[in-house]
Amino acid sequence: MGMKVNHHYQEVKESYLFAEISKRIREWQEKNQDKAAQLIRMGIGDVTRPLPKEVVKALKAASDEMGVAESFHGYGPEQGYDFLREEIQSYYKKFSVQLEKEEIFISDGAKSDLGNILDLFDRGITALVTDPVYPVYVDTNIMQGNKILYARAGEENGFLPMPDSSVKADLIYLCSPNNPTGAVYDRAGLAAWVDYARAQDAVILFDAAYECFVEGDLPHSIYEIPGAKECAIEFCSFSKKAGFTGTRCGYTVVPDKLVFSGQSLRKMWLRRQTTKFNGVSYIVQKAAAAVFTEQGEKEILENIQYYKENAKTIMATLDSLGIYYTGGKNSPYVWMKCPDGMDSWSFFDKLLNEVYVVGTPGAGFGEAGEGFFRLTAFSTHEKTKEAMERLKTLLGR
Amino acid sequence: MGMKVNHHYQEVKESYLFAEISKRIREWQEKNQDKAAQLIRMGIGDVTRPLPKEVVKALKAASDEMGVAESFHGYGPEQGYDFLREEIQSYYKKFSVQLEKEEIFISDGAKSDLGNILDLFDRGITALVTDPVYPVYVDTNIMQGNKILYARAGEENGFLPMPDSSVKADLIYLCSPNNPTGAVYDRAGLAAWVDYARAQDAVILFDAAYECFVEGDLPHSIYEIPGAKECAIEFCSFSKKAGFTGTRCGYTVVPDKLVFSGQSLRKMWLRRQTTKFNGVSYIVQKAAAAVFTEQGEKEILENIQYYKENAKTIMATLDSLGIYYTGGKNSPYVWMKCPDGMDSWSFFDKLLNEVYVVGTPGAGFGEAGEGFFRLTAFSTHEKTKEAMERLKTLLGR
Questions:
Q1: Chain A CB within 8 Å of residue B13 CB
Q2: Chain A contacts of B235, Cβ < 8 Å?
Q3: Chain centre distance of CA B44
Q4: Which chain B residues touch A51 with a CB distance below 8 Å?
Q5: Are residues A118 and A8 in contact, defined by beta-carbon separation less than 8 angstroms?
Q6: Would you say residue A287 lies in a domain?
Q7: N or C: fewer beta carbons within 10 Å in chain B?
Q8: In 3-state terms, what secondary structure has residue B204?
Q9: Distances (CA, A) of A9 to A123, A144, B120, B121, B263
């Protein structure tokens, strides 16, 4: 007897990354109280620009609706309101991707759905992730007792690892533009992964949370690749696109063609969501829909451009210093090589102690992150420029 | 080879209850277009009163905050903001229940957490539910490949089944006030369940979604019972309390004393939520906090009283007709015995065809629901009174 708790939870490693960063900053602050105001945080993975005015307007209008019996909304559809699903459907048409409304599920964010999707599979399957990696992919699989395999990214492949047909996996996690490296797959790269997945009857879990940063002809969605609807689920979010990290809305696409062992994953996900979810707040869905209005699009673009300007400042600095990096162009993340062969925590300490700038050590994202360092574009123009000036001074070039 | 989908999803029975009700209403409407306007829906399980003004005010103020960089909120704590957890902590003190803030987790609703909590346990364990039952308890367990046992409720036990020590279970679902029966356990009843759970090292999943309807000395929380913190997780929601069915906020209490096989369920749940959830919208949490202000409490009480007035109308009618029922007093649900020994679908048809009133057949909630019928208090005063007049006419007493 005795309750059978899921013992796989014990196998999840506590992430010390952000706790360790906080601890080192705290210690530095105690020793440098006179310099505390000069600290610049370039490790932040959260947006800082406020919600667009058009979104705030929609939030307030929907709140008013909820205060009147005639326009009050109770339980909504678990898979989201049609008014928002249709906007997303139209958005995908911009990349020539045709989705059925029924394939689009509104969520409270990509992280929830990336975790909950594992409900649809057996415990104990094999997941392939890239290294470095967003830790959630690893931890959610460990919690299920799944086996994890790593596809190593590095300078040699531009931090865009390609499939190895001798490796067998059930689930394949791809994030493009990537967190933490900012690297983006082109069509040929994604096509190779689609071919690999289809050849072995695997499912790609495609995290498109940063697609709004993509420029030019690079793919925004994996469904731009022929055959992807037969093997991929796509997760996206309004978090980075429209500053919704604290407002919470995203969407997941489960194509009808995803059928395994005779089971439609779309129908299974619909069943999962209708049983274990009650939909996203009506008010928040109205706010998300406002993102797609002409004025909404204009305003979110301004915010994205603001962050991109910061990324340009970082890239120009690294270029002038002759430092290798990925990202920045199609991503709010710049993944730089630590100078002079330093390991990532030593560089962290050096930056903090000598020029009072905080970033994120690459080693925190996996073995292959050692020797690299993540800077983000989510600070202000002023602070980003100042931090880069200090970096130039530090490296004395 | 081939993807190992969770085949337990195939074992979930499609619920035809609400689909069948819709179909019969549609057929009736087609045949009775002249009477369509007279239809009264007493089967509705959703609130109809708008959000309290104080809540709308909070929603709009928080929306404005989000539109300004200085007061913008990005990612919040996955377990919820302290300002809301502290309000809930204070609320429990009204029932003399002392909770640590860390034991309270803000969620987007009880349904999500009731489903997701199964992550903490092995697949294939045994869940005990009462019959009749809220279908979500059954379906979420079937999806995990868990075994389901039923504790039969009926007239003989006032629809409040007591534990049978010869039955072994890992999880025990209790909902009090109950959906669909409206029956409420007293302290002695809950104490018997707590003793039973502790004797066999089981966990009670206590659904308190309707606690705001409880009057007098009956328990609002299972933690009013000594020993419950050693065996129970409690799920609650602002849905029925404050009309949040479309706004989405709830909370789950996982006490620190819940330790099984050396594992703290609170720590496991914290790990689960930080890995697979990103917290509830800041705006919605501010709205939920407004429920606890003096003005907020006054307004939600007015709404609850409004529904209770409807329940009284229903109860008075059934009393005058000499029909057995449970609920109504501490619940928005009245669970009536079908007159003249009718089965629940026959009574549904009779009510619909002869007096144009819709309710929910008890058989839809499980075998033990046969011969019973659920009426809800969520309609307007006018319609509720009219429906009850028609019921009296129908039964000719």
A1: no
A2: none
A3: 13
A4: 63, 66-67, 72
A5: no
A6: yes
A7: N
A8: strand
A9: 13, 8, 8, 10, 9
**What's the rounded mean pLDDT across residues A41-58?**
95
d(CA B271, CA B321): 54
Please give the Cα distance from A40 to A316 (Å, whole number).
Answer: 18
> Cβ B5–A263 below 8 Å, yes or no?
yes
Q: Give the pLDDT confidence score for residue A15 in this predicted structure.
A: 76
Kindly state whether B269 is in contact with chain A, defined as any CB-CB distance less than 8 angstroms. no
Nearest to A207 by CA among A98, A79, A110: A110
Residue B166, Cβ neighbours under 10 Å: how many?
A: 5
Q: At A265, which CATH number?
A: 3.40.640.10
Owning domain of residue B362: 13-51+295-395
**pLDDT tens-digit map of A61-85:** 999 999 999 999 999 999 999 999 9
**Under an 8 A CB cutoff, do A5 and B121 touch?**
yes
Residues in chain A: 397
Are B47 and B57 within one domain?
A: no
Same domain? For B175 and B155 the reply is yes
Q: Output the six-digit token pair for A174.
A: 């791809």
- Reference A130, options A181, A165, A170, A168; nearest CA is A181
B330, pLDDT greater than 70: yes
Pick A143's closest partner by Cβ from B55, B119, B136.
B119
Kindly state the helix (H) or strand (E) to which residue A167 belongs, with its residue range: none
Is the pLDDT at A207 greater than 90, yes or no?
yes
**Across the interface, which of A56, A76, A116 has its CB nearest the CB of B276?**
A116
Residue of chain A minimizing CA distance to B5: A121
3-state secondary structure of B360: strand
Domain identity same for B299 and B289: no
**Taking phi first (over 0 means left), then psi (-120 to 50 degrees means alpha), and beta for anything else, what does residue A34 get?**
alpha
Looking at the structure, do residues B41 and B188 belong to the same domain, yes or no? no
Contact of A53 with chain B, judged by CB distance below 8 Å, is answered with: yes
Domain edge (last residue) among A227, A258, A291: A291
Q: Total domain count for chain A?
A: 2
Strands B357-358 and B104-107: unpaired
Please report which residue ranges of chain B form alpha helices under DSSP H. 17-31, 53-66, 82-93, 110-116, 135-143, 187-199, 239-242, 265-276, 282-290, 294-321, 344-355, 381-395
**DSSP bridge partners of A105:** A252
Residue B15 predicted with pLDDT over 80: no
Tell me, yes or no, whether A317 and A235 share the same domain: no
pLDDT above 60 for A162? yes
**Taking residues B88-110, what's their average pLDDT?**
98
Q: Number of C-alpha atoms within 13 angstroms, CB side, residue A356?
A: 13
Q: Domain for residue B3, yes or no? A: no
Instruction: Tell if the CB–CB gap between B4 and A75 is shorter than 8 Å.
Output: no
User: Is B268 in the same domain as B305?
Assistant: no
Band (pLDDT 50/70/90 cuts) for residue B3 is: confident
Provide the pLDDT for residue A397.
66
> Tokens 């602050």, residue?
A29
Give the residue from B268, B293, B318 where a domain finishes.
B293
> In angstroms, what separates the C-alpha of A18 from chain B's closest C-alpha?
13
In total, the C-beta contacts within 8 angstroms joining chain A to chain B are 253
Task: Quickly state the pLDDT bin for B17 (edges 50, 70, 90).
Answer: confident
Cα dihedral sign for A176, A181, A185, A191?
Answer: negative
Cβ pair B3:A201 closer than 8 A: yes
Q: How far apart are CA B238 and CA B216, in angstroms?
A: 21
- The reply to whether A135 and A19 lie within a common domain is no
Which H or E run contains A316? helix A294-321
The token duo for B187 is: 């302290």
Average pLDDT, chain B: 96
* Encoded tokens for A7: 């013992």
Structure confidence at residue B397 (pLDDT)? 65
Query: Do A81 and A282 meet the contact criterion of CB atoms below 8 Å apart?
Result: yes
